[in-house]
Request: fold
Amino acid sequence: MNLRTATSLALPFIGARVLGSRTPLVVGIQLTLRCNFRCDYCTRTSDQRIELPSELVGHLLEEVARLGGRKVVFTGGEPLLYAGVVDLARRGHDLGLSVSLNTNGTFLQRQQEILGWITDLTTSLDGGREVHDQVRGAGSFDKVVESLRLARDRGIKRRVTVVLHRLSLDAVDELLALGESEDVPLTFQPVFDPPEDRTDVYPAVGAYRAAIDLLIEAKRSGRSRVIANSIEGLRYLREWPDLSWSRCAGGFLFCRVQVNGDVVICAENKASPPGGNVLRDGARAFERAFRGLEVLSCGTCPCANHVEINQAFAPNVGAALNLARLV
Reply:
């Protein structure tokens, strides 16, 4: 990362931390609830065909760019099931935004046009082929690997998210080896709160913490390139489910637009009310909604990506350097 890029990232962090200024550096946009998978630990999938109108999303992208945003993350559900996603990725690109696609990897092979307009691709793995296919269906592991290689060949930054649930704990070593062979960083995080009838996906706390200890040791021993989490972030997440107080950068540096139009800090924070609704109030209301978010200090954030931003926001030098390395 060059000095200009580093400065452009550092100034909003410093402004937010010292002056309380707000810049939506990263905005997640939940395009749809539709998904072809029904993962046991997922809280976000639905059979409902609820989607944000594409025209509104286009105006929203313009608003994010005008306010100094750097990245938008298209998510769902499965965003590649959203009919206008390629056009929206192109629109974001033309506005000078980094466009990140958070996909399960199933449909990228047939929608490769989007690779011309995105800068980042994030997908998920639950383990090696046997475990991942057990969770998501036969052939799904190979589709993820193929998607990662398609993105690599186009020079797109890639990341794999690994949710440490009951089945994935034993696959940590295998996943680290895969990350090294494919030259792709992996982000490890605990399970978000699943539906009440699926709590059997929770790992045993002792086994989970042993897996985090393994990751910390691996990070210290020179495998930092393949582990996207910082050591500071891993130490924080190790305490799951008894996570400690953490100052949240949400509302200062990031937010999320839900499929129902609500502008929120994140999908998992149920205690913070929406700052507004872009469906009800119009996309031009995004700025007012973002600045109206009630900023909270969350003690139960399991989202590894947000934990990394929060650790850098603390400020924690090690986490900040790790975050800068990945941008």
Remarks:
- Residues 3-326 form a domain with the TIM Barrel fold (CATH 3.20.20.70).
